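User: Can you recover a sequence for this backbone? Please restate the input before giving your answer.

Assistant: Of course. Working from this structure:
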């Protein structure tokens, strides 16, 4: 923008100077013709009064041609008639510079980062059509790769780039070199590797090789970005089917493991319950060994609550049903089960 403004101001000043000079010279000539005739008027055109404005206009024009302002994001190459090889050996960097009008010409190159994209999506890359890189893997599978290259011109080698490529370096160097090297590197990997973690290795190898190639030609590579890898529909369907099968197998294994876990849990619960019962039986056994009357007590506790019974000494082997004995009255009996405490039980006939 600054360079355009300076060039615009100098060009406008030069044009205005030439316009004013033309008006002045024509007016001066017409006045001279009216006063002295044609011949004297022509001679007066070479007088100081005419040559001075001419020199001023010419000076403004030469000044506009001699001043070169290079922007910070640019580097200039000076094509020179008087220099060996037709070009100044050193580029001009950002700032104000002078060149020799008519004998030298400035050509500007950007040194800011540029991105060259090759994509299968129309309009996404530099070209409007499908511009992806098609290649074959080591096992014969066809793949399409979308990539972007971020690079810039090395300002120290701007003269070399100008001599070798001029402004065609992106289309005539970057594009064909990237496509060729990508195809060559992809052919060293299988389709499975390209579609797995080995993709990182492929990208790193391409970045390293391209950086060296660019450096040899006066360019600086910042990043090589492997944006997308697409396979043929047949291969994609096969991979998808395999993935679905693997996921189904994993689900089956998971469900089987869940069933094994449940079975193990039930077995552990049964074992714990059995251990608890065994421990309880041990405690009961100890208690019974200490007091054998507990057997009769436990037997009575297990009977139905709707049955009313009479406790008898442990020496009596049977408990008789009262209706069978013809007893209709309520009986009250007191019997000592143990030698310590009598128990009184009331039995009522139904």
């Amino acid at each position: 923008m600054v360079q355009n403004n300076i060039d615009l101001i100098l060009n406008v000043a030069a044009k205005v100077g030439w316009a004013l000079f033309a008006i002045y010279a024509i007016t001066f000539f017409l006045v001279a013709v009216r006063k002295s005739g044609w011949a004297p008027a022509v001679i007066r055109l070479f007088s100081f009064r005419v040559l001075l404005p001419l020199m001023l206009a010419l000076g403004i024009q030469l000044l506009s041609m001699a001043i070169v302002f290079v922007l910070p994001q640019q580097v200039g190459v000076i094509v020179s008639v008087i220099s060996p090889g037709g070009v100044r050996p050193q580029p001009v960097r950002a700032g104000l510079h002078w060149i020799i009008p008519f004998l030298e010409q400035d050509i500007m190159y950007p040194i800011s980062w540029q991105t060259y994209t090759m994509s299968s999506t129309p309009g996404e890359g530099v070209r409007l059509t499908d511009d992806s890189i098609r290649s074959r893997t080591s096992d014969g599978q066809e793949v399409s790769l979308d990539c972007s290259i971020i690079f810039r011109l090395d300002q120290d080698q701007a003269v070399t780039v100008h001599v070798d490529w001029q402004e065609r370096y992106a289309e005539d160097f970057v594009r064909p070199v990237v496509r060729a090297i990508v195809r060559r590197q992809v052919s060293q990997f299988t389709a499975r590797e390209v579609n797995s973690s080995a993709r990182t290795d492929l990208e790193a190898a391409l970045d390293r090789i391209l950086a060296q190639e660019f450096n040899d030609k006066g360019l600086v590579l910042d990043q090589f970005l492997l944006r997308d890898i697409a396979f043929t529909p047949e291969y994609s369907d096969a991979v998808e089917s395999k993935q679905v099968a693997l996921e189904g197998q994993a689900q089956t294994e998971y469900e089987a493991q869940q069933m094994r876990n449940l079975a193990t849990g039930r077995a552990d619960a049964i074992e714990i319950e059995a251990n608890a019962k065994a421990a309880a039986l041990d405690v009961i056994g100890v208690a019974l060994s200490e007091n054998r009357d507990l057997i009769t007590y436990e037997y009575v506790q297990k009977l139905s609550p709707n049955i009313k019974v009479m406790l008898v000494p442990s020496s009596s082997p049977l408990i008789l049903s009262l209706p069978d004995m013809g007893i209709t009255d309520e009986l009250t009996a007191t019997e000592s089960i143990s030698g310590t405490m009598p128990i009184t039980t009331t039995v009522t006939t139904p």
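That completes the design. The two ends are 120 Å apart (CA to CA).
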